[in-house]
Amino acid sequence: MPQFTSPRPSTGTALRKPRNPWVAPSQMRKAGAHRAAHARQAARIELAQTLRELWSPPRHD
After folding, report:
1. C-alpha triplet 18, 24, 17: angle, nearest 5°
2. Organism's domain of life (predicted)?
3. Which residues in 18-41 are b (16+ Cβ under 10 Å) and which e?
4. Nearest to 55, CA basis, from 47, 34, 20, 30
5. Least enclosed by CB within 10 Å: which of 1, 11, 29, 53?
6. Is there a contact between 47 and 53 (Cβ–Cβ < 8 Å)?
7. Nearest of 5, 32, 27, 8 to residue 16 by alpha carbon
8. CB neighbours of 24 closer than 8 A, spacing ≥ 6?
9. Which of 6, 5, 24 is nearest to 15 (CA)?
């Protein structure tokens, strides 16, 4: 078994092979632009902003 006793030649940089074939494509993916909020969510946010503008904390004079 002399062929297994010598060290393997180095190729410089060793590339790591992912075990899962879907790993490499998923790591290259970029996130897309977010969509606008739905109507109900937008209405709730608008109502919260309006109430925040109208409400003033009580004064302790």
Report:
1. 25
2. Bacteria
3. eeeeeeeeeeeeeeeeeeeeeeee
4. 47
5. 1
6. no
7. 27
8. 18
9. 24
Q: Is the full-model pTM beyond 0.90? A: no
DSSP state of 49: H
The string of pLDDT tens digits covering residues 21-60 is 788 787 888 877 777 768 889 899 999 999 998 887 777 7
Distance of CA 23 to the CA centre of its chain: 15
Name the burial class of residue 9, with classes exposed (0-12), middle (13-18) and buried (19+) by CB atoms within 10 angstroms of its CB.
Answer: exposed
Tokens linked to 27:
């790591």
